[in-house]
Amino acid sequence: MTNILTVFTLLFFSACFVQAQASFVNLGFESANLTPIPQGQFGTFVPISQALPGWMRFLGTNPVSSVLQNNYALGSPNISIFGPNWTTAQGIIEGQYTVLLQGGVGSGDTSLLQTGLVPIGSQSLRFKASGGNNFPVNFTVSLSGQQLSPLPLSSGPNYTLYGADISAFSGQAGELKFTALSYTIGPNNLLLDSIVFSPIPVPEPAPIALLTLAVAMLFLCTRFRRRPVK
Q1: pTM, 2 dp
Q2: What is the torsional sign of CA 122, 96, 160, 138?
Q3: Which fold has domain 23-204?
Q4: How many CB atoms lie within 10 A of CB 213?
Q5: pLDDT tens across 143-178, in order?
Q6: 126 with 153: CB under 8 angstroms?
């Protein structure tokens, strides 16, 4: 009887611990509570609690309490939120809002991070990103302090869909962090949107490469067979 009570007690506290770990929120950045800015006008700094609920912003290792709305920096590290009225070349990827992370000159890394519980059964982290008018963009993604290796999965009209294997983190609490790295030549802008924890695994790059090579070799063999003999 004592053993049974002990097991139930452990299960109870385990359940309480899991419930205490909050899930990730606002992964599409659509929870912003902002006053719309007339189209064609630039905004100013707004509190991050209103612009990006659930997220924290860091310039280097320094936390920052505000972000720009419908505006961006020139040469300095920065985070902006675009929307709901924003139609320039660095446009909104999906929904009403998209976030811009700008790496600064020299040592100006810019990070956006959140701590939460990775849903049980998650196999991959997927997100839509773009460099705007600046390619390639130099960024990193980490979960629980471990660098992920995002792979491009497909392309949209103004973004690339990336996927990274996170199967080892399923059901665990951890810090999700996106960083636009500093630069020495040219702006480093990362437009980010539509972050999803997916039960679908990321395709292995090796089989994809082998399949591509096999198709190419088959094509070459076919051409050689059809070449007339002189």
Answers
A1: 0.79
A2: negative
A3: Jelly Rolls (2.60.120)
A4: 10
A5: 999 999 999 999 998 899 999 999 999 999 999 999
A6: yes
